[in-house]
Write a structure and sequence with these properties.
The chain is of the alpha/beta class and 674 residues long. The chain is 45% helix and 12% strand.
Length: 674
């Protein structure tokens, strides 16, 4: 071997792997080291970039503007959650258990504006609470009274109403599309050219829905008032605040006919206004349709009434949208989900005989309101009223309400009287709940509802399957600890040195770590709108995990996140079997900020984030890492890349919420072994 080759060998390095020995020349070694340095530099640059991005995200969340925004969202959450509690108590008093969702309504108008609707399974309330002053007793009482009224109304629909599609099905036809306008009712009132244009057309879904809603509201409210007369106060407030449109008195009568709980004088004023409508001759036909529908439980008769009223409204409204309608309805009819079981339409209990108002033959005093054609609306002649006094002076006439009362002022008085009769205890309870929620980091989740017996059985099965695995593991890890486990772990020194009769030789099992598993668990559940079709199964699995943790005295907190963070159950409190609701966006930041409050002083903290999509506010969770905390991100039926780089300690994709329980069981097993 030459000196040159010897020197080359001496300057080379050898690297051994499992299969063979490699010999790298100086050049190869230099290139390898260069590649390694470049890779380290790239990793360092990427780490620095990610760190800067994470710091930027955290700083952006804590700017003054964001701090104000987050405080506003926290205040909204406290109010909305408390209103959900009010609504839930009302529905429970009615004997039904629909899920309640309360959301912020960003209407841009001042004052708490509100919408409410039901799909006959859930009750949805939307309210603008930004301008609500909870220190103003009048506003709070008004708000609680209105929310209770809306809840009674939507709960009444669940109990009494037949959804449009179901009505059509019971009547043996498709929703409206089979019915062709023949014009028998409306021909006398239409211009021949207009009549020709509408005759032969199908009554579409929108027209059918509007007519059904007008009829069903009056039918349902009549039933509710007969069963509980106090409902009249709540419903009349809704009519006054959310249906009545000043200036549309002439067209209002079809919405009023069947609401016989309204005061006679007010009804007469609106009947007089309707008489000034240019198609007033259509009123008797509409009255007959409305009252027939109200008293019927024959689906064919009711379906015919909807179609006939839809035809009448073509003439009566003449391009107008009609009165306001703050509640709209879906077409679902799975009453069993809310505790209502019926396979046929319920007959409505009839109110006492009621003769509908007739137009007054004499000239009545004007109300001061304008009708749809710009003419003033007439008020009833109250000359025979014992409360009427002839005007004497400007001052005295200003107080003479009976002679000069308008429809609007009458409705305003109704609202004032109804609110004055409301128990202020309801408002006090609401404020107490708001204050409790404000003191908490996360408001209570108002969308949770009790599980059915079948859902509870599913939870128990999940709980038992987890415990079967973990119990066997405990036996394998510590087979000698079989007796007196409730007393703790035997302290050998204390046992040997004990005095006769002394039983104080159990150690370490009386404190908050007495279960032997120095662990807390947090379940962060994505309840955005995209999770809606999975939320039932996800709720069952989450509750099964919670119940299994209870068995081992492991505090397990369940928190939901969508547009805002909500607390389902804290780790240190008892909980019944409940299921969550879904709706809104996907914002996880607030849910992460409260993790420290869910640790309960434990050494280890397992955090399981369950989501099906991209978070819109935070890209990396490493800022919430902590010694002893393991963040497991579980993606449900999504691209794994969406969660793989979120900064969790581990990320797993599953395709069915049922796979979550075994996954968490395996995670818990690691802590049991250690």
């Amino acid at each position: 071997m030459t000196q040159e080759s010897i020197q080359e060998v001496d300057d080379s390095e050898f690297f051994e792997d499992e299969e063979e020995t490699q010999l790298l020349t100086r050049k190869e070694l230099t290139n390898s080291r260069t590649r390694l340095r470049n890779m380290i530099n790239r990793d360092a640059a990427n780490s620095e970039k990610r760190a800067r991005q994470l710091a930027s995200q955290l700083l952006s969340q804590n700017t003054p503007d964001n701090a104000m925004y987050r405080e506003r969202i926290r205040r909204q959450g406290a109010i909305l959650s408390s209103l959900g509690s009010v609504s839930g108590k009302v529905l429970n008093s009615m004997g039904i258990t629909p899920r309640v969702t309360v959301e912020q309504l960003n209407s841009g108008t001042r004052g708490p504006q509100m919408n409410c609707y039901t799909d006959f399974v859930d009750v949805h309330i939307q309210i603008n609470c930004d301008n609500l002053d909870i220190s103003d007793d009048a506003q709070v009482v008004d708000l609680v009274h209105t929310v209770k009224g809306f809840t009674y109304h939507e709960g009444g629909h669940i109990m009494w109403s037949t959804p449009p599609d179901y009505l059509c099905s019971l009547a043996g036809c498709n929703k409206g599309t089979h019915h062709v306008i023949n014009g028998s009712l409306i021909k006398p009132y239409l211009d021949p050219k207009v009549f020709e244009a509408v005759t032969g057309r199908h009554i579409g879904g929108t027209a059918f829905q509007q007519a059904w809603n007008i009829l069903e509201d009056q039918r349902m409210e009549s039933a509710m008032v007969v069963v509980s007369p106090v409902m009249a106060r709540y419903f009349s407030t809704l009519v006054a605040k959310y249906m009545y449109d000043p200036g549309k008195e002439e067209i209002a009568w079809p919405w009023i006919v069947g609401r016989t709980y309204l005061p006679r004088e007010l009804r007469q004023m609106l009947r007089n206004a309707a008489e000034r409508h240019k198609h007033a001759a259509l009123i008797p036909a509409m009255e007959e349709i409305i009252m027939t529908y109200r008293s019927s439980n024959d689906p064919k008769v009711m379906h015919s009434c909807v179609l006939r009223l839809a035809e009448c409204l073509i003439v009566w409204l003449e391009g107008s949208e009609g009165l306001r309608n703050p509640d709209v309805h879906g077409t679902s009819f799975d009453y069993g989900k809310v505790g209502v079981n019926r396979t046929q339409i319920q007959a409505v209990p009839e109110s006492p005989d009621f003769n509908l108002e007739k137009p007054e033959e004499h000239k009545a005093e004007v109300t001061g309101d304008k009708g749809s054609d710009g003419e003033e609306v007439e008020a009833p002649d109250s000359s025979d009223s014992k409360d009427s006094n002839p005007p004497e002076t400007e001052e005295s006439s200003a107080g003479n309400q009976s002679a000069e009362k308008t429809v609007k002022s009458y409705f305003d008085d109704i609202v004032s009287d109804n609110i004055a009769q409301m128990s202020h205890g309801d408002a006090s309870d609401f404020l107490a709940t708001v204050n409790d929620n404000l003191r908490q980091v996360a408001s209570r989740d108002e969308s949770i509802t009790p599980m059915t017996s079948d859902e509870v059985k599913e939870v128990v099965n999940i709980q038992n399957s987890m415990m079967d695995v973990l119990d066997r593991l405990i036996v394998q890890v510590d087979p000698s600890w079989m007796f007196y486990r409730e007393n703790g772990v035997l302290d050998p020194t204390a046992f040997i040195t004990r005095e006769p009769g002394d039983m104080n030789f159990w150690s370490g099992m009386d404190g908050d770590k007495g279960n032997g598993h120095d662990l807390a668990v947090s379940l962060l559940v994505d309840t955005s709108g995209s999770m809606d079709h999975r939320i039932g199964r996800t709720s069952a699995v989450a509750m099964g995990i919670r119940k299994a943790c209870e068995h081992y005295d492991i505090p397990c907190t369940i928190t939901t996140f969508s547009d805002r963070v909500r607390l389902v159950v804290a780790g240190d409190e008892q909980v019944e079997h409940v299921k969550m609701g879904a709706g809104g966006g996907t914002h996880i930041f607030d849910a992460l900020t409260i993790l420290d409050d869910q640790r309960y002083g434990k050494r280890y903290h397992l955090v399981v984030i369950i989501t099906d999509g991209e978070w819109s506010d935070i890209k990396d969770v490493r800022a919430w890492g902590d010694p002893g905390r393991h963040i497991l991100i579980v993606g449900v039926d999504i691209n794994h890349e969406l969660i793989a780089h979120k900064g969790g300690n581990s990320a797993v994709t599953i395709y069915n919420p049922s796979d979550l329980a075994p996954l968490v069981t395996n995670a818990l097993a690691g802590y049991f072994i250690n």
